[in-house]
Predict the 3D structure of the following.
Amino acid sequence: MKFVLATRNAHKATELKRILEELDLDCELLTVADFPDAPEVEETETTFEGNALLKARALAKFTRLAAIADDSGICVDALDGNPGVLSARWSGATENVDQANLDLVLEQIKDVPTESRGAKFVCAAVAVFPDGKELVATGEMQGNLLDTPVGENGFGYDPIFVPTGFTKTTAQMTASEKDAISHRGKALNQLAHQISEAISKL
């Protein structure tokens, strides 16, 4: 069975494929890059689940294949849960977006004491089938924010995020270390089990 990943973010596509392939789903994974004329989907919903479903529904309709999408972001306690669903476009920048977003969050929390820098990554992962069937799974990773980026791996806010129970950022972790505890890893793990059950009933 073929699934298409509903993201144009190269970093995210790589991470999604890596996690799903490690979960041994019996399927072929394609990406939006395999469908150059696929529509751009504006993320207009106010929840991670809503935005993920928007993307997956549009791609499933266009490709007539099952589509997998996720929407994720970081929710900072001191910023009342922001950036949240706006994480990928928090700064409004069009170039060096990851760096601009990270820099803005650091500026916004620069006066927040260390003990009040709690945050969490949240992910909603969904699968939408051509027949309209929809599966939804969610995952979270709790942690705290540093005041200076550390690490070269990962992307987005990884260089300032230290997961609870660890002493290094997710940007200092190997891919397998991060996948084992990440919000996206947890959500996709749940989703993979749901997909396996759905496929077995076909």
